[in-house]
Request: fold
Amino acid sequence: MSHKNYNSAVIGVDLGGTKVKAGLVAGGAIVSAASNLIPESSEYDADAVVEVVKDTIAAVFSGEVSGIGIGIPSMLDRENGIIYDVQNIKSWKEIHLKDILEAHFQVPVVMDNDANCFAMGEKLYGLGKNYENFAGITLGTGIGTGLINRGTLLADANCGSGEFGEIPYLDGKLEDYASGQFFKNNFKDDGPSIFVKAQRNDPAALQSYRQFGEHLGQAIKIIMYAVDPGNFILGGSIAEARDYFDPAMRAAIETFTFPTSLKNLVIEYSRLGGDAPILGAAAVFHNCHWVKGR
Reply:
C-alpha cells in the first residue's frame, strides 16, 4: 500500500485530555466526524479509555479506510505504537495502542505526539505547503512545537524534539509563560475569559496579552537559536487572540542577535482552525515510513 496518496481515505484521531475526536479524511477534507468524552474513571481504568477510542473511530470507520493516524498528548514509541505516561489520562502508563487498534480494525495505525501532528497537518493541508522548513507551534493549555525539516518531521530519538516548553525560563519554564498557564498562574483566569475581557477593551486583559506576547517572542527566539527553522506557523486556541499579543511578540523578537535571520523570518497563523488536530493526525499516517508491508 502506498501511503503517499494523500487523497486516500484515512481516519485522523485527536486524543485530548477530556475528549476523543475522530474524523474520516479524504481529498484533504474531513468527510465525517465523531467525538466522545473520556470517562471519569480514566485515572484508574485504562481499558475504559481504550474502549472510548475504539467507539469513536468506529463511528466514522468505513471499508474505504486505508489507515488510522492518532495524535497523542504524550511521549511515545512511534514505530511500535506504545504510549507512555499520558499526563491527562493517569491510567495510561504504557499502552500498546497500535497493536490493539490494528487487531480490532485490521488497518495500519500510526501515532505521533500532537504537536508533530499539527506541524505535519500544516505541511500537507495548510500554510506549510509553502515551506520546506518551519516550526509549527500550538498555543493552548500548554505550548507544543513540531519541527519540519526538508519537508518532513525532524528525525529524533524519543519523539521528544520540540519540547521547548520544558526549557527553564525566569522562575519556572517556558510553558509557564508562553501558554495558557501564564493567564492561570498570573491572572487567576483562563484564556477564554481573558479573551472576552480583551474584546471589551479591559485594560488588565489587554496588558496580560502584551506580557504574554513578550514571553512568546522570547520562546520563538530560543527556537530560532536552537534549530533556525526560518518560518513559524502558530495555531491553537490562544492564536485566536493574535491581535492582542502579536505586536508585543514581534517587538520581542526584534532583539534577536542576527539581522539576516530577522529579515527572512516569516510568522503566520494557521487557517485550519478546529480541523487542525484531525487533519494533522491523518497527515502523520500519510507521512509514515515504518508501516509494515510498505
